[in-house]
Amino acid sequence: MTPDILAALAVFAFASSVTPGPNNIMLLASGANFGLRRTVPHMLGISVGHAVMVALVGLGLLGLFAALPWLRTALMVLSAAYLLWLAWKIANAAPPGRAEATGRPFTFLQAAAFQWVNPKAWYMAIYAQTNYAPADAPLLGPVLVALVFAAVNLPSVTVWAWGGTQVRRWLEAPGRLRVFNVTMAVLLVASLWPMLTSLE
I need a surface site. Which of 16, 18, 26, 53 has the fewest CB within 10 A? Predict the structure, then answer.
């Protein structure tokens, strides 16, 4: 991989990781509801889980999707259903005080597994491997793309979790928290739109 391609990949990884999407919306809500420390496993799960996905996409899943087109549609339907359920959970999250006692943020494994039903994560992985992985390195290339994503992704998603903690005190009023959580839920549902239009 040339330095120019590596730089372009890093820019793509940053732009796609730091912009709004299911992961970042959920981290913003988690930071606000649970605080930064309790959200760290969620952040690490996203970064490691997505890097593993990116590597596996490049190492064989692209070929599987080409051979079985229906698999992509089934995956998108499953993703939409799961995201709708998560949106409902966020909209009905408890206030910060009660959330700390009764609610639970995503664990590392839950966040890592979520990448497999996250439409944006799939698009990022497929685009990166299709456009940046060197064709002359069928094993090392996909792994290198995944490592670049891992290095760039964690600082990017941390910004969103930290942003949630900054509004935490303002959200101590139950009415404000309710509006915030419903807004996050609506944004999470809205993040499905690019996926739905791609299925037309």
Answer: 18
Per-position DSSP letters for 51-116, written without gaps between them:
HHHHHHIIIIIHHHHHH-HHHHHHHHHHHHHHHHHHHHHHHTPPPHHHHHHH--PPPHHHHHHHGG
pTM, entire model? 0.77
Q: Is the dihedral of CA 66, 20, 115, 140 positive or negative?
A: positive
Q: What would the pLDDT profile of 10-45 be if each residue is shown by its tens digit?
A: 998 998 888 888 899 889 989 988 899 999 999 999
Task: Return d(Cα 167, Cα 191) in angstroms, integer.
Answer: 22
Residues near 117 by beta carbon (within 8 Å), at least 6 away in sequence: 75, 78, 79, 82, 83
Distance CA 57, CA 2 (A): 21
Q: What gap in Å lies between CA 180 and CA 101, rounded to an integer?
A: 20
**Alpha-carbon distance 89 to 22, whole Å?**
13
Which tokens in the block code for residue 1?
Answer: 């991989």
Q: What amino acid is encoded at 143 in this protein?
A: V
| Buried/exposed code over 137-167 (b: 16+ C-beta within 10 A; e: otherwise) | eeeebbbbbbebbbebbbebbbebbeebbee
42: nearest Cα among 132, 118, 101: 118
